[in-house]
């Protein structure tokens, strides 16, 4: 013990502040973030994430529909709505009223548009030669059937954001909960009826782990399917292209299993989510590298981005991992 003390004193004499190495210095911020999430007080943070998700999805839809020459006017709707959702979500960082009123309207429209887009993509595959009689070929070569549903996830996040409390709403001991304070319940989105009060209060208190886990499971399912047919076109040229395919069932089962098992939600779900998050970032690097290696590289940026590897698709996979990680930190209704 004496030798350790002497070693510590010598390091301090050398100019190294050992207090920065104590767990409490960095751990305090992590505990504070987790507390905000568990209490449902992260509206600003989720608004920023929603804006980023809508922007990524909108850009991908923009160039996918550009490749389709915008043959139908309805192909403009996801581009316009995603831009609106990104803008409104960003404004929600600064305005509680925008977050409670305008954000849920745009987010709901985005969610509906994703469902409508899914119907049109299914119809587009059916209209290809052979239709659903040759499903593998037409799924791979036709419109991405699950892409609209993946874009609808950003609408779901916007709706959840509208019901959350803000980071500065943390009530002091003995105070009334922030969702009962002035400015909280007065701005309920859409004037929620009494029938939905229970769900609204669960979200405001961060007790919606099951809902978020299912959202993460669906998101990774959509992302994984998109990765499968995109890499199938390339005949899985690189082994690393199998990683999102292998991670998809793991995170999907972890998300669905979290509905019934608290233990899965606290153990398997965060591990699978972190792996998906890292894999998405690694995939974005490989996609960017492949675009740079195409003829012309950065000299033809728009062309190579349009017709090269979908550079934003891996980031949507990473977003699915983030949803799962967020779900693992939330509470359940009975907590």
Give a summary of the structure in a few sentences.
By secondary structure, the chain is mainly alpha-helical.
Plain-language structure description:
The chain has 2 domains: about 40-205, no CATH class; about 210-335, no CATH class. The chain has helices spanning about 1-15, 25-40, 45-65, 75-90, 95-100, 100-125, 135-140, 145-165, 195-205, 210-235, 245-255, 260-265, 270-295, 300-305, 315-330. The protein contains 15 helices and no strands. It is mainly alpha-helical and about 325 residues long.
Low-confidence stretches: 1-8, 10-23, 171-187
Task: Outline the biggest β-sheet.
Answer: none
| Overall 3D form | globular
Query: Could you say how many structural domains there are in total?
Result: 2
Structural class: mainly alpha
Reading the helices and strands in chain order gives HHHHHHHHHHHHHHH
Distance, first to last CA: 43 Å
Mean model confidence by pLDDT = 81
Q: Treating each run of at least 4 consecutive H or I residues as one helix, how many helices?
A: 15
Please compute the radius of gyration using only Cα atoms. Answer: 23 Å
Strand content: under 5%
> What is the percent of helical residues?
55-70%
